Amino acid sequence: MPRNIKFVFTAVFLTLTSGIFFKANAQSVLENEISIQADKKPLGSVLDLMEEKGNFRFAYYGKLAVKDSVVSIHTDNNTIKGVLDQLLGAKYEFKESPGFVIVRYAPLELALVLEKNTVMSDGQQIVIGYIVDTQTNNRIENVSVLEKNALVSTLTNKDGFFELRLKNAPQAIELTAVKENYKTVTMVFLSEIKIQMGDKKNKTDYIDGDFSEIERSGIGRFFISSKQKIQALNLGGFISKVPLQASLIPSISTRGMLNTQIVNNFSLNILGGYNAGVRGLEMAGLYNINRMNVDALQIAGIFNTVGGSVNGVQLAGIYNNVFGNLRGLQVSGIHNSVKGSQVGLQMGGIYNNVYKDSKGLQIAGIGNTVKGSQNGLQLSGIYNIGKDTVRGAQITGLFNYAKELHGVQFGLVNITDSPSGYSFGLLNFKKGGYKKISITSNEISDINLAVKTGDHKMYTILMAGRSDRTDEEKLFSFGIGLGKNIPLGKRFTFNPEFSTQYLYLGNWDIYNSLSKFDSPFSFQLCKGVALSAGPSLNFYWSEKQDKNGNINASTFVQDRTKRYTIINNNSKDILGWIGWSFGLTLF
């Protein structure tokens, strides 16, 4: 029998017998019977009903009919494939993976033609063929041709040809041709060499989800070759799991272009690598790029970026990026980003960003941002932003913002769009909060200006005052404080306040401090204007001389308060008195 006739006969025989074998021994999900009654229902609702009745899930790859299109179907004891054929028609193909029915838009058909199957002297087997469009008979470029048992793949060239080199060819070679918008074609034939595979098997799966976003990102456009992107587009959710891989750069690796479809237990990338995912450990001198999920420890000199979710730890010299969710730890020299939700810890030298919800801790040298709800702690040098509900604490050196606060803020400036929570800072702005400006006079300061912000249960005070006795002797005061607004009626309020102030009395090197307990009552004259007056309890501490021996000769405070004095302890430089204040409160 001629070689090529024997080749074709063997392929046809194995295909037919394997099809009979699997039909006899395994009941396909697509062959399970189901009854569906739906009249003018959205397609998505009908598919959800099929999932519920058939105890499986749909996985959509590529273009799918609009799920809100209206359909009607009445069928009893029909196969799941039969129902899908009625709903979607011949432009779709259906496959299955454990627990899934895969729906793929494929209106066109291709054919896989084998030309040569050669065994070399070193045992390597070379398979050569081409791919054609069955309707036009034109040969097709950029078709992925895969031998999934040996985990070897390639793309057809501009003339539609492909060449696969199989170093350890399995006994039954299974070639699969895949291209976007074409139905998948598989051809099975017997290898002329027999190799005992033992227990060394690669598990293949279908992974549900669209992980192409990473290829459209700036990093993906720069580091991932066009051939790798085409390969990932054609093969879609086909994923294999292997123990290890190594690469110099993404296009030069032990798995060739198929690394886009392989999940590794250990991945070593000398400069950088691009893989489907990792379950274990991944290390790179410069960068790691993963198309799908990572359950691992990732270490890179420059950056790690993951198209799916991360359960584990990412360590990078500059940048970590997760397109899905993070459950674990991110540490980088500059920036960490999670486009899904975060549970765990982010530590960035410059800033951290979470696009959805955050539960845990963010620490950054400059700023933290959570676009969803936050439950935990944000700690930064410059700013913290929570664009939804913040439950926990925001602590920063400058600015905090929370859309809805159910926790506490510590910063120079705090802003929240809700009346709840507590804000501690020089300026605190809250929805429906307490925002007042007071102009008053008291026993030592002729004029005082105070800005009061916060809410009625607690507001902060930023104040300054001035008095002149002579051209040479003046008093300037600067201080901060806390207060509470207690309504006593429609127009009356009581505002107990505590403040501490620094007093300048002619020499900055001599420390003078004043602690005040004010208890003014306010009467609202009209909207935005109120009169305030009340007593105060004051304690004044001063130094006798500065570090250079200059004597504190000022008697400004003593002279102004002597008729109110209740404590005069010269040995400890403490003075106490009962004082008063009177003025206007605006807004």
Question: Secondary-structure map with pairings?
Answer:
Elements lengths: L2 H23 L7 E10 H12 L2 E5 L8 E10 H9 L3 E6 L2 E6 L4 E10 L5 E9 L10 E4 L4 E4 L5 E6 L5 E7 L6 E6 L12 E4 L6 H4 L1 H6 L2 H10 L2 E12 L2 E2 L8 E8 L2 E4 L1 E8 L2 E4 L3 E7 L2 E4 L3 E7 L2 E4 L3 E7 L2 E4 L3 E7 L2 E4 L3 E7 L2 E4 L3 E7 L2 E13 L3 E7 L2 E3 L2 E4 L5 E3 L2 E4 L3 E9 L4 E9 L2 E11 L5 E10 L2 E2 L4 E3 L2 E8 L7 E7 L2 E6 L2 E14 L13 H6 L3 E5 L4 E13 L1
Parallel strand pairs: 2-5, 14-16, 16-18, 17-19, 18-20, 19-21, 20-22, 21-23, 22-24, 23-25, 24-26, 25-27, 26-28, 27-29, 28-30, 29-31, 30-31, 31-32, 31-33, 32-34, 33-35, 34-36
Antiparallel strand pairs: 1-3, 4-5, 6-7, 7-10, 8-9, 8-11, 11-12, 13-14, 14-15, 37-38, 37-48, 38-39, 39-40, 40-43, 41-42, 42-45, 43-44, 44-46, 45-46, 46-48, 47-48
Keywords: Signal
Protein name: CarboxypepD_reg-like domain-containing protein
InterPro entries: CarboxyPept-like_regulatory (IPR008969)
Give a short synopsis of this structure.
The protein is mostly beta strands and 587 residues long. Helices cover 12% and strands 54% of the residues.
Q: How would you portray this structure in words?
A:
The protein is mainly β. Among the domains are: 74 residues, Phage tail protein beta-alpha-beta fold (3-Layer(bab) Sandwich), CATH 3.55.50; 92 residues, Immunoglobulins (Immunoglobulin-like, Sandwich); 153 residues, Porin (Beta Barrel). 12% of the residues lie in helices and 54% in strands. It is built from 7 helices and 48 strands. The strands form 6 sheets. It has a 24-stranded mixed beta sheet that branches. Strand 41 and strand 42 form a beta hairpin. The longest helix has 23 residues. It is elongated and about 110 Å long. The N terminus is likely disordered. It comes from Flavobacterium tagetis. Keywords: Signal.
